[in-house]
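Q: A reviewer asked whether we had any structural model of the full assembly, not just the individual parts. We don't, so I'm hoping you can provide one. Inputs are below.
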Amino acid sequence: MAKTKTQMKIFTIADYKEEEKWLENQHSNGWKLIKINLPFFYTFEKVQPEKVIYQLDFKEKEATDDYIKMYEDYGWQHLGYYLGWNYFRKYESAATSESDKEIFSDTESKIEMIEQVFKTRMLPVLTIFVAVMLPNFCGLDKLDFSPSEIVFTIIYLVVFALYIWGIIHCGIKLTKMKKELEK
Amino acid sequence: MDSKLRKIYVPMSETAFYILYSLQQPQHGYGIGQAVKEMTNDEVSISPGTMYGTLSKMEKDGLIDLVKEEDKRKIYQITDLGKEVLKIELNRIKRIYKNSLGEKYYG
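A: Here is a predicted structure for the entire assembly that you could use as a starting point for your response.
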């Protein structure tokens, strides 16, 4: 049986380009992606180091057969669908041209994917923030600060801070990527 | 044709033009990609993500129709509305071409 390793790494919805690069690096170091178990947990298998292209495509709904088939026709292997992202891989030796190394061939479709991420991921998250997190946060001063309340409050504040960081990080980054493409 | 479609497809992107043009014959996504490469001598290539997204959008907008599914491949063809849009676009391109040669052209 081949040697495997599982590694944890956190990528937000705005870090998919970094995620692709990371997976490519892993493969060029001899670690081929086998599966993603839970979010952020990647399992690799020890293989010969090779130059392989990894690409991510965001789709709100799970990949359909015709979608996977079209990518296969183009020489892309579909590795799975995790949390909105379809993972694809192609060996660089199999790519016939530069354009064959990318799953998007024009700027419009790249921008469209970012807009999809915004609409289906950022908007719900923002709505929850405004409708649930923010009112809860404003209600914190009414607590009586018993030990259990304090623990709860600390956990809540950590989540709240992470949430804000996530929204700001992803919001700024996606907007920047979009602006860059629109230039 | 309503103004919304006009706004999206007149003028249309190079990708959209070649896809719509190719679908005067029934074809699936990869087949379109190959045909476009062939007719442009590899100068225009349409990747799968772009192809899939454009086909889905055009189907939703009624420019193309799903003819059948064969071996998991969706085969599309241009609709009457699609032909109407393509005609406008072809005329526009012809005008630009003629004008670029210093000729007058009114379509």
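A: Points you may want to mention in the reply: The interface with chain A takes residues 13-15, 28-30, 33, 42, 45-54, 69, 71-74 of chain B (CB under 8 Å). Residues 80-100 of chain B form the longest helix (21 residues).
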